[in-house]
Amino acid sequence: MTIAVCPGSFDPVTSGHIDVIERCAHLFEQVHVVVAVNAAKRPMFTETQRVEMIREVLAEDGFPDIVVTSTEGLITDYCAKVGAQVIVKGLRQNGDYEAELGMALVNKQIGDVETMFLPANPLKEHISSSIVKDVARHGGDVTGLVPGYVAPLLIEALRSEKR
Known about the structure:
There is one protein chain. By secondary structure, the chain is of the alpha/beta class. The protein has helices at residues 15-27, 47-60, 75-82, 96-111, 129-137, 150-162; strands at residues 3-8, 30-36, 67-71, 86-91, 114-119. A 5-stranded parallel β-sheet has the order 3-2-1-4-5, with helices on both faces. The chain is globular. The model has no long low-confidence stretch (mean pLDDT 94). Reversibly transfers an adenylyl group from ATP to 4'-phosphopantetheine, yielding dephospho-CoA (dPCoA) and pyrophosphate.
């Protein structure tokens, strides 16, 4: 069985993330979406909230069998634990390749795990979690940028941030 891992911070999960994850589900027998916990970052949503958001959106979209979890360690350690042969990363046209290539080479060296780059859907390649949060912070409409389930959670998180 070919197992793929789609790691990311997913803070919050965007329509672009979901597109890449669902496309992976058509390419691999099993897909693990892994919320990578980075102690150096201060996410808007907790690890548990991010995992639950992704699970909910994927179930709504008809992909309930994708494994969604989190890890604090190296993604290569997670891959070894579940027997994953490949890490899948979505690439946008904003310099993602340069950043992701270095990580891919390190992951191959330390964990013997290949990385597959999946080009972003051209209709969604402009979407990032940072842009989504910025638009929402300034009162902009995030419809289409995040799944419908995520939008009200994002608005509520921003309200709490202002308090």
